[in-house]
Amino acid sequence: MDEPLVVAEEEIGQRLDLWLKSRFPDYSRTYFQSLIEKKLVLLNGKLAPKRTKLSAGDEIEVEFAITEEIKANPEDIPLEILFEDSALLAINKPAGMVVHPAPGHPNKTFVNALLFHLKKAPTEDAVRPGIVHRLDKDTSGILLAAKTPQSHEDMVNSFANRHVKKTYLAIVNGNPGVTQTIDVPIGRDPKNRQKMAVTSRGKRAISHVKRLDFDGEKSLVEVDIETGRTHQIRVHLNYIKTPIIGDSIYGNKKINEKWKAERQMLHAYKLSLPHPTTKETLSFRASPPKDFKKLCNPELLLELT
Fold first, then answer.
1. Mean pLDDT across the stretch 216-244?
2. What does the pLDDT read at residue 126?
3. Closest by Cα among 26, 62, 3 to 189
4. What share of the chain has pLDDT > 90, as a percent?
């Protein structure tokens, strides 16, 4: 599911299917009714009938499916492949690549590239064929895809049961200290429902931060996450007053301009999980992109990659 959409005050009382149609006018009510029936729409984290009347603040998550109205076509987009076998594919996703097609991003996504790479035609399955997790558009790093339905199910279970270990690199403004664990809940920002924030009404979120380098102004940090809340690392690092450089939502505009950072300096650096077939532990490591490396101590990055 994508990041939730939020029902506004003036939309109170609308039916779920009609509300979706109003938000995405290029698609029919029948299309959204089909998504609801396929259990691809959640209301406040739960399944809901299409006739459900909405309240202000309700959160709707939609996973767009491939139909005649929204297709994912194979596109010859180069992929930096870290690992591939008959069960799964691991790539180093570049910053700027959207993971899957949706209104506003119909092509040039990872799914389009994956379809071409696997030489598969579009199906009636969800628009993320084999996608088991996601990265924000402007976050670079390790992204996985399953190549069979069984491996997809096994990998989804591994993520759900926290058998997947993920480590990120981030460049932040300031000094977060040598190590610290951030254990504060994250939920919708009550002042801006399009953002996330630390709030007592949120869900528990745990991030372990380790400083790798500090040059007097900015730090290179390693972040291990135990939970996978929306924008978790970005929100947590901002909460301890060391926002990620380049973050246009949670960062500092003047700092971003100073370092000429056009996207958040966040990179999915390492990932390990049990192989879906053999159950042996697989471990991947992805080198950061050029814009990230420009802001780091090159000798230290050489040790990391």
1. 95
2. 46
3. 3
4. 53
pLDDT digits (tens, 9 = 90+) for 87-119: 999 999 999 998 877 766 778 899 889 989 987
Q: Which residues contact 85 (CB under 8 A, 6 or more apart)?
A: none
Catalytic residue among 17, 58, 136, 154: 136
- Give the residue ranges of DSSP H helices in the chain: 16-23, 29-37, 110-118, 149-160, 232-239, 253-258, 290-293, 298-304
Longest dimension (CA), the chain: 59
Q: Any idea which fold 167-267 has?
A: Pseudouridine synthase (3.30.2350)
- Beta-bridged to residue 143, according to DSSP, are 91
For all residues of the chain together, what is the average pLDDT?
88
Give tens-digit pLDDT for 157-216.
898 888 999 999 999 999 999 999 999 999 878 787 678 899 988 889 999 999 999 999
- Helix or strand or coil: residue 301? helix
* Phi, psi (deg, nearest 5) at residue 45: 85, 0
Vertex 182 angle, CA 181 and 186, to 5°:
155
Nearest alpha carbon to residue 118 among 155, 81, 92, 63: 81
Q: Tell me if residue 58 is catalytic.
A: no
Closest CA to 250 of 299, 189, 291: 189
Question: Helix (H, G, I), strand (E, B), or coil: what is residue 203?
Answer: strand
Q: Which of 177, 180, 182 is nearest to 198 (CA)?
A: 182
- For the domain spanning 5-62, the CATH number is 3.10.290.10
In DSSP notation, 46-63 reads: B---TTPBP-TT-EEEE-
Section 115-142 average pLDDT:
76
Tell which residue, 250, 300, 244, has the closest CA to residue 267: 244
Question: What's the predicted TM-score (pTM) here?
Answer: 0.80
Q: Would you kindly state where each structural domain of the chain is located, as residue ranges? A: 5-62, 167-267
